[in-house]
Specification:
single chain, 222 residues, alpha/beta, Rossmann fold, five-stranded parallel sheet, binds BIS(adenosine)-5'-pentaphosphate, binds magnesium ion
Length: 222
Protein backbone atom coordinates (compact mmCIF):
# COMPACT_ATOMS: atom_id res chain seq x y z
CA UNK A 1 0.00 0.00 0.00
CA UNK A 2 1.42 3.37 -1.03
CA UNK A 3 -0.28 6.43 0.43
CA UNK A 4 0.42 10.13 0.97
CA UNK A 5 -1.07 12.44 3.58
CA UNK A 6 -1.39 15.98 2.37
CA UNK A 7 -2.50 19.24 3.96
CA UNK A 8 -1.43 22.46 5.63
CA UNK A 9 0.81 22.70 8.70
CA UNK A 10 -0.94 21.58 11.87
CA UNK A 11 -3.88 19.92 10.15
CA UNK A 12 -3.07 16.61 11.87
CA UNK A 13 -0.96 14.72 9.30
CA UNK A 14 1.54 13.41 11.85
CA UNK A 15 -1.18 12.50 14.36
CA UNK A 16 -3.17 10.55 11.77
CA UNK A 17 -0.06 8.98 10.20
CA UNK A 18 0.89 7.46 13.57
CA UNK A 19 -2.58 5.86 13.88
CA UNK A 20 -2.57 4.61 10.27
CA UNK A 21 0.92 3.08 10.40
CA UNK A 22 -0.04 1.17 13.53
CA UNK A 23 -3.27 -0.16 12.00
CA UNK A 24 -2.01 -0.83 8.48
CA UNK A 25 1.60 -1.71 9.34
CA UNK A 26 3.07 0.92 7.06
CA UNK A 27 6.33 2.83 7.29
CA UNK A 28 5.76 6.48 8.24
CA UNK A 29 7.90 8.70 6.01
CA UNK A 30 7.73 12.26 7.33
CA UNK A 31 10.27 14.52 5.64
CA UNK A 32 9.74 17.02 8.49
CA UNK A 33 10.73 14.36 11.08
CA UNK A 34 13.72 13.27 8.97
CA UNK A 35 14.91 16.87 8.67
CA UNK A 36 14.44 17.57 12.40
CA UNK A 37 16.41 14.46 13.23
CA UNK A 38 19.23 15.59 10.88
CA UNK A 39 19.20 19.01 12.59
CA UNK A 40 19.41 17.39 16.02
CA UNK A 41 22.33 15.20 14.90
CA UNK A 42 23.94 18.25 13.25
CA UNK A 43 24.63 16.33 10.03
CA UNK A 44 25.49 18.21 6.83
CA UNK A 45 21.82 17.96 5.79
CA UNK A 46 20.81 19.28 9.22
CA UNK A 47 23.22 22.21 8.96
CA UNK A 48 21.88 23.16 5.55
CA UNK A 49 18.22 22.77 6.56
CA UNK A 50 18.19 24.45 9.99
CA UNK A 51 17.67 28.09 8.98
CA UNK A 52 14.93 27.22 6.45
CA UNK A 53 12.93 25.18 8.96
CA UNK A 54 13.15 27.80 11.72
CA UNK A 55 11.98 30.51 9.33
CA UNK A 56 9.06 28.38 8.14
CA UNK A 57 10.47 28.12 4.62
CA UNK A 58 10.78 24.98 2.49
CA UNK A 59 14.15 23.23 2.59
CA UNK A 60 15.80 23.05 -0.88
CA UNK A 61 14.09 20.32 -2.89
CA UNK A 62 17.04 18.07 -3.79
CA UNK A 63 17.82 17.51 -0.07
CA UNK A 64 14.26 16.45 0.68
CA UNK A 65 14.00 14.36 -2.47
CA UNK A 66 16.95 12.23 -1.40
CA UNK A 67 15.58 11.78 2.14
CA UNK A 68 12.18 10.69 0.80
CA UNK A 69 13.49 8.42 -1.96
CA UNK A 70 16.00 6.72 0.37
CA UNK A 71 13.21 6.08 2.90
CA UNK A 72 10.86 4.65 0.22
CA UNK A 73 13.68 2.45 -1.07
CA UNK A 74 14.40 1.17 2.46
CA UNK A 75 10.89 -0.26 2.71
CA UNK A 76 10.98 -1.90 -0.72
CA UNK A 77 8.87 0.90 -2.28
CA UNK A 78 5.71 -0.47 -0.73
CA UNK A 79 3.81 -0.29 2.57
CA UNK A 80 4.51 3.36 3.28
CA UNK A 81 2.68 6.57 4.00
CA UNK A 82 4.31 9.84 2.98
CA UNK A 83 3.68 12.78 5.32
CA UNK A 84 4.69 16.24 4.13
CA UNK A 85 6.18 15.06 0.84
CA UNK A 86 5.67 15.96 -1.96
CA UNK A 87 4.84 19.60 -1.23
CA UNK A 88 5.73 21.41 -4.46
CA UNK A 89 4.85 20.63 -8.07
CA UNK A 90 8.52 19.85 -8.68
CA UNK A 91 8.51 17.34 -5.80
CA UNK A 92 5.26 15.85 -7.11
CA UNK A 93 6.92 15.32 -10.50
CA UNK A 94 9.92 13.66 -8.83
CA UNK A 95 7.62 11.39 -6.83
CA UNK A 96 5.63 10.34 -9.87
CA UNK A 97 8.80 9.74 -11.87
CA UNK A 98 10.45 7.76 -9.03
CA UNK A 99 7.44 5.56 -8.27
CA UNK A 100 6.45 5.01 -11.93
CA UNK A 101 10.08 4.01 -12.55
CA UNK A 102 9.53 1.20 -10.03
CA UNK A 103 6.09 0.38 -11.39
CA UNK A 104 4.70 1.28 -7.97
CA UNK A 105 2.55 4.43 -8.27
CA UNK A 106 0.92 6.16 -5.30
CA UNK A 107 -2.52 4.66 -4.69
CA UNK A 108 -4.12 7.55 -2.81
CA UNK A 109 -3.33 11.08 -1.69
CA UNK A 110 -5.43 11.94 1.36
CA UNK A 111 -5.78 15.69 1.66
CA UNK A 112 -6.94 16.89 5.08
CA UNK A 113 -8.21 20.43 5.58
CA UNK A 114 -9.35 22.75 8.37
CA UNK A 115 -9.58 26.55 8.60
CA UNK A 116 -6.52 28.71 9.36
CA UNK A 117 -8.06 29.62 12.71
CA UNK A 118 -8.16 25.95 13.73
CA UNK A 119 -4.58 25.46 12.50
CA UNK A 120 -3.29 28.30 14.67
CA UNK A 121 -5.11 26.93 17.73
CA UNK A 122 -3.72 23.43 17.10
CA UNK A 123 -0.12 24.56 16.53
CA UNK A 124 0.15 27.10 19.32
CA UNK A 125 -0.50 24.45 21.99
CA UNK A 126 1.23 21.48 20.34
CA UNK A 127 3.84 19.72 22.43
CA UNK A 128 6.13 16.86 21.38
CA UNK A 129 7.64 14.21 23.63
CA UNK A 130 11.32 14.60 22.80
CA UNK A 131 12.04 10.96 23.77
CA UNK A 132 9.26 9.19 21.85
CA UNK A 133 8.17 11.74 19.23
CA UNK A 134 4.57 11.41 20.44
CA UNK A 135 2.45 14.44 19.45
CA UNK A 136 0.20 16.10 22.05
CA UNK A 137 -2.02 19.14 22.35
CA UNK A 138 -2.35 20.80 25.74
CA UNK A 139 -6.17 20.99 25.42
CA UNK A 140 -7.26 18.54 22.70
CA UNK A 141 -4.88 15.63 23.28
CA UNK A 142 -3.15 16.25 26.61
CA UNK A 143 -0.11 14.21 27.61
CA UNK A 144 -0.78 11.57 30.29
CA UNK A 145 0.58 12.17 33.80
CA UNK A 146 3.22 9.49 33.20
CA UNK A 147 5.00 11.83 30.73
CA UNK A 148 7.48 14.01 32.65
CA UNK A 149 6.77 17.70 31.88
CA UNK A 150 10.42 18.40 31.04
CA UNK A 151 10.36 15.87 28.18
CA UNK A 152 7.67 17.94 26.43
CA UNK A 153 8.99 20.46 23.94
CA UNK A 154 7.54 23.00 21.55
CA UNK A 155 8.78 22.97 17.95
CA UNK A 156 10.92 25.99 16.98
CA UNK A 157 8.69 26.57 13.94
CA UNK A 158 5.56 26.78 16.12
CA UNK A 159 6.29 30.43 16.96
CA UNK A 160 3.55 32.73 15.62
CA UNK A 161 5.74 34.35 12.88
CA UNK A 162 6.94 30.94 11.64
CA UNK A 163 3.36 29.60 11.63
CA UNK A 164 2.23 32.58 9.51
CA UNK A 165 5.10 31.98 7.08
CA UNK A 166 4.37 28.24 6.84
CA UNK A 167 0.74 28.95 6.01
CA UNK A 168 1.81 31.41 3.32
CA UNK A 169 4.26 28.88 1.85
CA UNK A 170 1.50 26.26 1.91
CA UNK A 171 -0.89 28.50 -0.02
CA UNK A 172 1.68 29.54 -2.63
CA UNK A 173 3.76 26.43 -3.20
CA UNK A 174 1.99 23.40 -1.77
CA UNK A 175 -1.74 23.83 -2.32
CA UNK A 176 -1.39 23.51 -6.16
CA UNK A 177 -0.18 19.94 -5.60
CA UNK A 178 -3.80 18.99 -4.75
CA UNK A 179 -4.86 19.67 -8.36
CA UNK A 180 -1.85 17.76 -9.63
CA UNK A 181 -3.03 14.58 -7.89
CA UNK A 182 -6.66 15.26 -8.64
CA UNK A 183 -5.73 15.10 -12.33
CA UNK A 184 -4.14 11.70 -11.65
CA UNK A 185 -7.48 10.60 -10.12
CA UNK A 186 -5.99 9.65 -6.74
CA UNK A 187 -6.87 12.69 -4.60
CA UNK A 188 -9.39 12.33 -1.74
CA UNK A 189 -10.43 15.34 0.35
CA UNK A 190 -11.04 14.75 4.05
CA UNK A 191 -12.60 17.16 6.54
CA UNK A 192 -10.05 17.51 9.37
CA UNK A 193 -12.43 19.11 11.85
CA UNK A 194 -13.54 16.97 14.78
CA UNK A 195 -11.92 14.64 17.27
CA UNK A 196 -8.77 12.77 16.28
CA UNK A 197 -10.68 9.44 16.23
CA UNK A 198 -13.44 10.92 14.05
CA UNK A 199 -10.93 12.18 11.45
CA UNK A 200 -9.17 8.80 11.59
CA UNK A 201 -12.52 7.10 10.85
CA UNK A 202 -12.98 9.31 7.77
CA UNK A 203 -9.50 8.45 6.51
CA UNK A 204 -10.01 4.73 7.07
CA UNK A 205 -13.32 4.74 5.25
CA UNK A 206 -11.68 6.33 2.19
CA UNK A 207 -8.86 3.77 2.34
CA UNK A 208 -11.28 0.84 2.67
CA UNK A 209 -13.40 2.06 -0.25
CA UNK A 210 -10.78 3.39 -2.66
CA UNK A 211 -7.41 1.74 -2.06
CA UNK A 212 -7.40 -1.52 -4.00
CA UNK A 213 -4.48 -3.01 -2.07
CA UNK A 214 -6.38 -2.61 1.22
CA UNK A 215 -7.86 -6.10 0.91
CA UNK A 216 -4.36 -7.48 0.46
CA UNK A 217 -2.94 -5.71 3.55
CA UNK A 218 -0.74 -7.51 5.96
CA UNK A 219 -2.31 -8.67 9.21
CA UNK A 220 -4.24 -5.74 10.70
CA UNK A 221 -4.13 -4.69 14.33
CA UNK A 222 -7.21 -3.69 16.33
P1 LIG B 1 6.56 19.20 8.76
O1 LIG B 1 7.13 18.62 9.97
O2 LIG B 1 6.06 18.33 7.70
O3 LIG B 1 5.49 20.26 9.20
P2 LIG B 1 4.09 20.71 8.57
O4 LIG B 1 3.72 20.18 7.26
O5 LIG B 1 4.15 22.18 8.69
O6 LIG B 1 3.05 20.05 9.48
P3 LIG B 1 3.11 19.84 11.02
O7 LIG B 1 4.01 18.70 11.36
O8 LIG B 1 3.35 21.15 11.72
O9 LIG B 1 1.58 19.49 11.32
P4 LIG B 1 0.79 18.13 11.16
O10 LIG B 1 -0.14 18.26 10.03
O11 LIG B 1 1.72 16.96 11.18
O12 LIG B 1 -0.06 18.19 12.50
P5 LIG B 1 0.09 17.35 13.87
O13 LIG B 1 -0.41 15.97 13.67
O14 LIG B 1 1.41 17.56 14.50
O15 LIG B 1 7.65 20.15 8.09
C1 LIG B 1 8.39 21.06 8.89
C2 LIG B 1 9.36 21.83 8.03
O16 LIG B 1 10.31 20.92 7.43
C3 LIG B 1 8.78 22.61 6.86
O17 LIG B 1 8.27 23.87 7.25
C4 LIG B 1 9.99 22.70 5.94
O18 LIG B 1 10.89 23.67 6.40
C5 LIG B 1 10.62 21.33 6.10
N1 LIG B 1 10.09 20.34 5.15
C6 LIG B 1 9.39 19.21 5.45
N2 LIG B 1 9.02 18.56 4.34
C7 LIG B 1 9.50 19.30 3.31
C8 LIG B 1 9.41 19.15 1.91
N3 LIG B 1 8.75 18.12 1.34
N4 LIG B 1 10.01 20.08 1.12
C9 LIG B 1 10.70 21.12 1.68
N5 LIG B 1 10.79 21.33 3.00
C10 LIG B 1 10.20 20.42 3.82
O19 LIG B 1 -1.04 18.12 14.75
C11 LIG B 1 -0.87 19.47 15.13
C12 LIG B 1 -1.50 19.68 16.52
O20 LIG B 1 -2.91 19.48 16.43
C13 LIG B 1 -1.01 18.68 17.59
O21 LIG B 1 -0.92 19.36 18.81
C14 LIG B 1 -2.11 17.61 17.65
O22 LIG B 1 -2.22 17.00 18.92
C15 LIG B 1 -3.34 18.45 17.33
N6 LIG B 1 -4.37 17.73 16.62
C16 LIG B 1 -4.21 16.84 15.57
N7 LIG B 1 -5.39 16.41 15.14
C17 LIG B 1 -6.35 17.03 15.91
C18 LIG B 1 -7.77 16.99 15.94
N8 LIG B 1 -8.48 16.23 15.09
N9 LIG B 1 -8.41 17.78 16.87
C19 LIG B 1 -7.70 18.55 17.72
N10 LIG B 1 -6.36 18.63 17.74
C20 LIG B 1 -5.69 17.87 16.84
MG1 LIG C 1 3.81 16.70 11.19
Amino acid sequence: MRLALFGPPGVGKGTQAKLLVHRLKLKHISTGDLIRSAIKLNTSVGKEARSFVRAGELVPGPIVRKLAEDAMTECGIDYFILDGYPRTIEQADWTTEFLDGHNAPLEAVLSISVSDEVIVSRLSKRRINRETGEIYHLDFNPPPNSVPPDSLVQRKDDRPEAIRQRLQVYRNQTFPVEDYFERQGILHRIDGLGDIEVVYGRLMSVIVSHVKSFGKSRQLQD
